[in-house]
Amino acid sequence: MISRREFLQASVAASAIVGVSGIGNWSRLAAQQRLTQDQLLQFDTFGNVTLVHITDIHAHLKPIWFREPDTNIGVGEVKGLPPHITGLDFIREFDLTEGSPEAYALTHSDFTALAKTYGRMGGMDRVATVVNAIRADRPEAILLDGGDTWHGSMTSLITKGQDVVDVMNRLGVEAMTSHWEWTFGTERVQEIVDGLPFPFLGQNIFDAEWDEPAFDPYTFFERGGVKIAVIGQAFPYMPIANPGWKFPEYSFGIRDGRMQEMVDEVRAEGAELVVVLSHNGFDVDRKMASRVTGIDVILTGHTHDAIPEPVLVGETILIASGSHGKFVSRVDLDVRDGRMMGFRHKLIPIFSDVIAPDPEMASLIDEGRAPYKDQLEEVIGKTESLLYRRGNFNGTWDDLICDAMLSERDAEIVMSPGVRWGASLLPGDDITREDIHSVTSMTYGECYRTEMTGEFLNVILEDVADNLFNPDPYYQQGGDMVRVGGMGFHIDVSQAMGSRISNMTLLKTGEPIDPARNYVVAGWASVNEGTEGPQIWDVVESHIRKIGTVKLEPNSSVKVTGV
Amino acid sequence: MKLSRREALVLAIGSVAAAAIPMTAYAAVEEAIATFTGGAAVGDAGVTLTAPEIAENGNTVPVSVSAPGATSILIVAAGNPTPGVCQFNFGEAAGAQAASTRMRLATTQDVIAIAKMADGSFARASSEVKVTIGGCGG
Fold first, then answer.
1. What is the structure's pLDDT at B18?
2. pTM value?
3. What residues of A are in contact with residue B57 (Cβ under 8 Å)?
4. Are A223 and A180 part of one and the same domain?
5. Of A237, A244, A479, the CB nearest to B54
């Protein structure tokens, strides 16, 4: 019998995109001619069960540019393991070709040039085409949504997630789990969930007062003659990473002890295949897979990683399907005699110029946008620089947002959250209001202005750094380092909490930060109730209008060591 | 080197907690446990402690303990100014030797549970609970 590892190798070879090579020197047309929808969808149907996974679309319904991170540091046991490899290392690890469509989709290398060659990615109308094609091939395929779905765009903010809910219902999602959904508040979440034609799963969502389970932990499917259990795992650190006062009724947490109980329970009820639909983040899922036995597949989410091969932990395979609608994962499984015997997987890149939009979905999306079209598409300015966010430390979008706060809020130091959502813009692109919302939209976007001591600023940096670089994944919240403007610092990621940050410097004067002095600080996305200030997207819009054209200098204010 | 039971116990606690705890609090933790165990050896099997990895609210952190066959369970918050949290005693008619409560944690610290078994032996479990200022989740 073929081992799982051998099987994986064979399936990766079989699923690789064929017929493309070269280093970004073709015209767009040539790329389209050489890369076809059939190639992207090519899949040798396998076994008797198909899972389709999409996650972390963050309400991005239209195709976008999305640059993957240049820095994604892994600490402790996961150092150097996927997803903690980037750029050329990533290309080498997965045997990709520099300049190929896969390299463009999966890495930041040569991003601007390759973007012009291969075009935008994502778009839920293209995703619909892919899902429909998979269903044509395997009608009983199960479509699962890993959450971070309803939040992240101007239209989703205005409609409180409704535009995205309509799209996902049309797509035919069959179960989901959650994270940013909760930032719309308990009442709105319950209103939407009441109307969903599928379960909203979370074995780790508890009633905060009585510490009792509050949502369905799992659901069963009978497909291809197989009884399949899908267990939901919501983002564990909801009330810590996001404003808990918007959903005070609920408590979350990893609760891997209960996960084990749920796995045992569904097995006892006859499940032959156990799938966890998770919003833990990749490293947390990797650890959970090593502690909970009996899970066949974890469909991971939250940390936005796109990994072209499943990662194996014992007998469990972990699937990472990227973010923002850039990818859809198809996982075919052979389930016999009550166990998973083999799998075949493909991370399908959604090249928007290659995959034809599904007309019905395209019109649904456009109908949702129509009332706000003028607001969305109003040009605020232009950028000469590549604008991106994704990475452990400041991206250029973050630098622009920080500059806006420094200038518009007259602050000495500013802080911007290290979230992983938000699309990129290419040099030469117009910046529309919708583009600004892509990197700022949220239900708690007030840009505060306050005073903090140097000592407290240090506490914040140490605290956030430990959320990212604690060697135990269970103590990581996902997300990236808080972005800072007006102040530089050094960070040694190999140190313990309290010892990572040093050399904090006020950039304006070059002087060291005085722990005892008060500094005027602006920031946004505070988790505290009652935060006051203008909305961050208005602050950024006002700044861009004043400068007209965005041109950013390379930012060297953060020095990283201990990698 | 041959350690006495007492020295081994102190070392075992020290290795996980000493770095973060001032000596006075450390002594208080040691004293609270020693008072409960009478200085007896403490094993590491037989008691299950369930606490969140990161507290959602440091002012009210849920914790559950379970130790089948125990007569009492002591909970200590090693980093609190007053480490003793509570002691559960189970009578002979108790259906299960398990309990839950909530406690306030001053800072990131280890929470320790010590169970006294019916045969007079002791078992220990501990879990680090992080108390964070939060924000910035992606």
1. 36
2. 0.90
3. 239, 244
4. yes
5. A237
